[in-house]
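Posting this for the archive.
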Amino acid sequence: IFSGSNRQWVFGSRKLLAFIITLLCCVFILTVLGVGLGIYSKLAPLWTEFTIAFSFFLTIVVYGIYTTSNLAAEEASLEYYHFPLWFKSLLPFPMLKSGGRQRIREAAEKRAKELRTRAYQERTMLNPNDSASKSRRANISSVGALLRRAADSIGRGDFDVSKYEGCLEEDWYNDADDLKKMSVDVLSKYMPRRLAEEVHIHLKVGTMNVRSSSFGAGFFEDEGRDRKVSWNTNEESD
């Protein structure tokens, strides 16, 4: 539950988790050695009983390692593929044959693609290798373009803002000009506040650019007469 809302916590605890896994491996190895030595110390003079007991114990251990190896290779193929060599030596059976190694490699690649796709979906990030993401970026409205420029300005250009664009379109805000009269508080109802603040800044800058370009476009309306005067000296005056 904690890692669901604090995903960096899991990544920051990777060294502790690696230590715990190493400790569990050491416990397993020491337990097997301890039980083997106990059987030997108790039944060493009685070689028939010792052989039966040790064979039974060895069968359980080998079968357990075999089952655990196949489980790890099938259900955690990507993790198993990246296990260090010393760890694979504890679960060696899937790697003993070339066919098994090939199956693990293919399953690991498939698992990596699934995790990459799920990561983009959960983080609402645009997948640069996804054709659907490319098509969404190619066909965007003025509202979508504004949101993407704002997201890029705050270093979140890889995030998919189409969800916020859809929320605005649900209230019939289909054009960027429709957002100019909105305050940051109103915009933040449709998107994260940090993004709303940046969108508001872009809208204000855009309005100022439009006003300045209109003032210096080369023509102006004469207040007293219904005609236009040109500032371009290359044109012939009427």
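The longest strand covers residues 219-221. DSSP finds twelve helices and two strands in the chain.
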